[in-house]
Write a structure and sequence with these properties.
- The chain is α/β, with parallel strands linked by helices.
- Strands 7-6-5-4-3-2-1-8 form an 8-stranded parallel beta sheet.
- It contains 9 helices and 8 strands.
- Helix 4 packs across helix 5.
- It binds pyridoxal-5'-phosphate (PLP).
- The site of pyridoxal-5'-phosphate has 14 residues, from strand 8 and helix 9.
Length: 229
C-alpha cells in the first residue's frame, strides 16, 4: 500500500479506538479528508484507497481540483473562510459548506445554487475560543442565524463546525469542543433538525470524538505536512 492509503487506515483506526475508549456507538464518525495545498494526484490516491469526501479551503484551488477529478464523483466540502463576493463558484461546484458565519453569505449561496443540483448542505461555524479566534459566529448569535439559514430554500442546514484554538492537553482541547456540543443540543432542543457536529482535526481527533463529533476533518495525518498555504 502507498503512504496515503496507510495513513487513511491509521486515521480510521484512531477513530475506532476513540469510539471504543469513550464508549460511543451510534452515530458513528465520518471522515473528511482535508486536501488543501495537496495535488489532484494525491486526492486520486486517497480515492483509490476508498476515501469519498474531501475538504478544501481556497475557492479557486478547490474548483480546479473538482474539475480535474470530476470522473471520480467525489463529495466536496468547502471548509475555509468564505467572503460573500466569492460565493458563486462554491454554490456551483461544492456539495457542502462548513464555514457559514453570517446570513449574507448564506443568502447568496442559496440564491446562486443551481436548480439542477440538490440543496447545498451547510454548517454554521461557531467561535468557541473567544478572543483567540477571529472566525465563526458568536455563540450568543448562533440560534438566530441557524433559524434564518434553515429557512433558505436552496440550503439544508446540517449542523455546526468549529476550529478551536490549538491546545496540547486533551482535557484543554475538550473544553471548546464541549461548548460546541452544548450549543448543538440547544439548537436541537429549539426544534432544528441537525445531525452534524463537524469538529476534530489531526491534533484533537480523540478529544472531538469524546465530545460527540460526527465528522472529523483530517489533513496532515492523511496527506502529511503542508508546504505552503
Ligand atoms: C486545514 C484544516 C483542517 C485539517 O487540519 P489538520 O490539522 O491538517 O488535520 C481541518 N479543518 C479546517 C477548517 C482546516 O482549515
Amino acid at each position: 500500500m502507498g503512504r496515503i492509503a496507510d495513513n487513511l487506515q491509521a486515521t480510521k483506526a484512531r477513530i475506532d479506538a476513540a469510539l471504543r475508549r469513550f464508549g460511543r456507538a451510534s452515530p458513528g464518525v465520518s471522515l473528511l479528508a482535508v486536501s488543501k495545498t495537496k495535488s489532484a494526484a494525491e486526492v486520486r490516491e486517497a480515492a483509490a484507497a476508498g476515501q469519498r469526501a474531501f475538504g478544501e479551503n481556497y475557492v479557486q484551488e478547490g474548483v480546479e481540483k473538482i474539475a480535474e477529478l470530476a470522473d471520480l464523483k467525489l463529495e466536496w466540502h468547502f471548509i475555509g473562510p468564505l467572503q460573500s463576493n466569492k460565493t458563486r463558484p462554491v454554490a456551483e461546484h461544492f456539495d457542502w459548506v462548513h464555514s457559514i458565519e453570517r446570513l449574507k453569505t448564506a443568502e447568496r449561496l442559496s440564491a446562486q445554487r443551481p436548480a439542477d443540483l440538490p440543496p447545498l448542505q451547510v454548517c454554521i461555524e461557531v467561535n468557541v475560543s473567544g478572543e483567540a479566534s477571529k472566525s465563526g459566529c458568536a455563540p450568543a448569535e448562533v440560534l438566530a442565524l441557524a433559524q434564518a439559514v434553515a429557512a433558505l430554500p436552496r440550503l439544508q442546514l446540517r449542523g455546526l463546525m468549529a476550529i478551536p484554538a490549538p491546545a496540547d492537553a486533551e482535557s484543554e482541547q475538550r473544553q471548546p469542543l464541549a461548548r460546541l456540543r452544548q450549543i448543538y443540543h440547544q439548537l436541537r432542543s429549539a426544534g432544528l433538525e441537525l445531525d452534524t457536529l463537524s469538529m476534530g482535526m489531526s491534533q484533537d481527533l480523540e478529544a472531538a470524538v469524546a465530545e460527540g463529533s460526527t465528522m472529523v476533518r483530517i489533513g496532515t495525518a492523511i496527506f502529511g505536512e503542508r508546504n505552503q498555504a
